[in-house]
Amino acid sequence: MERKVAVVGYAMTRQASDIGVPRPIMLFELVKGLFDQMGITRDDIDTFVLCSNDFQCGRTISNVFEDTPVGAYMKDETKVEADGVMAVMYGAIRIMSGLYDTALVVGNSLGGSEFRPYLIMDYQLHPAYDRQLGILNEPVTAALQAKAYMEKYKITEDHLNKIAARLLRNAAKNPFALRGKEDATPEYIASSEYLYEPLRELHCYPFTDGACAVVLASDKRAKALTDKPVWIKGFGDSIEGYFLGDRDLSWSRSAKVAADRAYRMAGISNPAKEIDVAEISIKFASQEPIICEALGLFPEGSGAEVADRGLAEIGGEMPVCPSGGGLGAYPFSAMGLIRVAECAKQINGEAGDIQVKDVKTAVAHGQDGFCAQHNAVMVLSSEEG
Amino acid sequence: MKAGERIVAHAVVPLDFTYNYRVGQYIERYIKALGEKKIMAVKCQDCGRVFVPPRKICGTCNRILDEWVEVGPEGTIEIFTIGHVKLNKGLVEKIDKPSIIAMVKLDGASSLLPCVINGLDPEKVKKGLRVKAVFKEPPEDSLFDLDHFEPVG
Ligand SMILES: [Zn+2]
Fold first, then answer.
1. Are A245 and B143 in contact (CB < 8 Å)?
2. Interface ipTM above 0.90
3. Counting Cβ atoms within 10 Å, is residue A61 exposed (0-12), middle (13-18) or buried (19+)?
4. Class of domain A5-115+208-225
5. Nearest by CB to A151, which of B6, B94, B127?
6. pTM of the model
7. What is the domain partition of chain A in residue ranges?
8. Residues 133 to 162 of A: which have CB under 8 A from any B CB?
9. How do residues A161-203 score in pLDDT, each as one tens digit?
10. B28-43: per-residue pLDDT in tens?
């Protein structure tokens, strides 16, 4: 990267099923709090990237009510409609262009209290085909994806339950997560009701309100803004075709392409060795092994072994989602942004009870669409290099 | 209003607002063929894959798909899920009788088609099971002319 970019500040709201305040107040308190904590004002921000979704907000051009609360009044401001990792990429690219030295990236979603996430996903279906027929919906597609992976690699529902239990235990230690359970066991997960087999209620993301803000800066400005810049070493994204029937759902080709791009840019040749912690965006427990394998964190088809041996635990070989990830909370547009902030926390040793030991390099992942049609991957590191 | 209760503005977005999507020649031809109990697909002349439902462009080869081929009406269940709920405007509702939703590989097709399988005990559904298309009689010139799939024989 010719011009280096760092994460120099971050803040997130508590993720909740009902955050209890209107969106502008939530955003104002979040961003003002972050500015105060960093000792800066909105004048220190050159460009603003907002991440929200018109359909989720129930109005067109969702950012018109968001720019003033986040301090973007009369400033350079733009919007990303997809996931938060993509918004951070966009912010980083704007700084890399040389036109800006600082960027504030803010994502938010009120899927817990304001809209119905599964209904919103219905409106992503092909309007002239799948939406007419009504066969597919988000949990159906996720169940089909789960079966494709599980049948190919001989993963059982017990393995899925282990993944979900681990994530809920992690989430219980994360004060920002919405849903956690300190003593979650595979049996506890198995006691929840099936939606579409093999997916049970506790394999699925909880409907979540939440927001996250991240300040990015060029290498020129980063050190003046923080003692502990977290460097964005590489990023990539990739999108598959829409039709599920065209895709091999037992793996994620686009997540692999996105990761390969990010790793090439970051100079990473052996992700399983060089990455210390991963924060990925999964909406269903079954997506975890698929995304982890696409990101090269575990070998292909290793979901059963990873779950049985606890390799993804906070103290494991490759900790995945110490925060609890998507089973702890899934505020749509803020999701990927939170993954980036969680990686920065881990690298800076600020993760409290969910801290992984000696984190230098972390990977954040975001997704959008059915069965993670669109994937974005970002590598972060304490080393400027 | 009880003490402590907040006022919520119910801003109704007209989700029933009708957008008049033109389905295009490809889905039109597909629907017409369903009326004759035929399932039509398109074949890419570069990569050779056969796509159903038919669409105009091959993403891999970035070219127009213009060779029409008939696929099915029989096929094989590749992936399936047993549904214990349904979604009603995004809300999860329990159902009494479990449903079977499958991705079926129609004979001659490369892609899989999302299908509802009827006439089969959910306990008996498995990968590799042969199924056949059941068409609506008389046809009504819609996608629903391909009503569902059921086991062969
Ligand atoms: Zn082709």
1. no
2. yes
3. exposed
4. alpha beta
5. B127
6. 0.96
7. 5-115+208-225
8. 133, 135-137, 139-140, 143-144, 147-148, 151
9. 999 999 999 999 999 999 999 999 999 999 999 999 999 999 9
10. 999 999 999 999 999 9
